[in-house]
């Protein structure tokens, strides 16, 4: 196995890119994908430490993390699609104005 | 040495895909690069001797591709005929997913008794016993008694989510 620092650097890079994307982009889909990148970084850490210590618990947590990624991705995509259909935009700006735009 | 080279190639591809995901202007391209990143990371999981995670990651990639298709159809605002075709495709997808899920659970429950006596997919799982902490070890022992059960539970959650998305999609805002 490679040194654990290699995996830590990789997961840190993914986490950093994910946080930067979530904070700087306006598109909801790209914000969502950036959050997923941060979760994937956590899964890499769990798996690397599970391999390092020969313990299965890390893999269980990584599986839970990946399941979270799937569910969050699908539900959030459905919400984004609904927002897009209603306001014709994928940016969060128009969705802030929910109270002033009532649907029939 | 070969493992190091493989890791650095996969890590470089993952970081490149992540940066491209964040910097693309169009969401569809961001999705494609995100799928590329997940593919590279699944290689790293395989290198870490976690094939179950590799399988889970492949399911995530499939979901991402499904998201690309659904989102692009939604953005393109195709007409009613195409929407009806998509609805029938979605229904058949649900049926196939439900049947495969049921088969997977039955296989997982029966493999120790009937299907694969003495030789199952335990090789895919970590071999060392977990002793600490006791609650987590009990949980893991429960899950890994039947080797395919975690994957089956994951597929079940995925199916529930897909049904939820279907309800969300049909509900007009």
Question: Your description of this structure?
Answer:
The complex is a heterodimer of chains A (104) and B (173). Chain A has 104 residues and is mostly helical. Chain A has four helices and no strands. Chain A has helices at 4-24, 28-53, 57-87, 92-95. The longest helix of chain A is centred in the last third of the chain and has 31 residues, at 57-87. Helices cover 79% and strands 0% of the residues of chain A. In chain B, 80% of the residues lie in helices and 0% in strands. Chain B is flat, with a radius of gyration of 20 Å. Classes of the chains: A mainly alpha (104), B mainly alpha (173). At the A-B interface, helix 1, helix 2 and helix 3 of A face helix 1, helix 2, helix 3, helix 5 and helix 6 of B.
Walk me through the topology.
The complex is a heterodimer of chains A (104) and B (173).
Chain A: H1 4-24, H2 28-53, H3 57-87, H4 92-95
Helix pairs in contact in A: 1-2, 2-3
Chain B: H1 2-23, H2 27-47, H3 51-76, H4 80-115, H5 134-145, H6 149-170
Question: Pair with the most extensive interface?
Answer: A-B, 55 and 59 residues
> How many strand units of chain B?
0
Beta-strand content of chain A: under 5%
Helix proportion of residues of chain A, in percent? Answer: over 70%
The biggest sheet of chain A, with number of strands, parallel, antiparallel or mixed sense and barrel status, is: none
Largest sheet of chain B: none
Radius of gyration of chain B, in angstroms, nearest whole number: 20 Å
Oligomer: heterodimer
Give the H and E element order of chain B.
HHHHHH
Principal-axis shape of chain B: flat
């Amino acid at each position: 196995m490679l040194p654990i620092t290699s995996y830590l650097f990789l997961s840190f890079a993914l986490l950093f890119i994910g946080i930067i994307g979530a904070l700087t982009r306006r598109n909801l889909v790209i914000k969502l994908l950036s959050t997923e990148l941060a979760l994937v970084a956590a899964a890499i850490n769990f798996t690397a430490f599970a391999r390092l210590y020969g313990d299965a618990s890390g893999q269980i947590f990584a599986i839970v993390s990946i399941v979270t990624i799937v569910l969050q991705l699908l539900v959030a995509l459905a919400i984004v699609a609904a927002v897009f259909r209603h306001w014709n935009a994928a940016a969060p700006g128009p969705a802030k104005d929910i109270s002033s735009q009532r649907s029939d | 040495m070969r493992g190091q080279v493989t890791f650095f190639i996969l890590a470089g591809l993952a970081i490149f895909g992540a940066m491209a995901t964040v910097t693309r202007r169009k969401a569809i391209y961001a999705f494609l690069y995100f799928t590329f990143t997940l593919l590279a990371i699944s290689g790293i999981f395989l290198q870490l001797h976690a094939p179950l995670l590799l399988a889970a990651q492949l399911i995530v990639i499939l979901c991402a591709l499904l998201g690309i298709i659904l989102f692009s159809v939604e953005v393109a605002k195709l007409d009613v005929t195409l929407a009806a075709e998509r609805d029938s495709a979605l229904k058949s997808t649900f049926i196939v997913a439900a049947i495969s899920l049921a088969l997977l659970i039955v296989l997982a429950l029966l493999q120790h008794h009937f299907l694969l006596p003495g030789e199952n997919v335990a090789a895919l799982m970590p071999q060392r016993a977990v002793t600490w902490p006791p609650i987590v070890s009990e949980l893991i022992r429960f899950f890994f008694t039947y080797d395919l059960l975690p994957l089956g539970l994951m597929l079940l959650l995925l199916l529930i989510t897909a049904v939820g998305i279907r309800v969300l999609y049909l509900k007009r805002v």
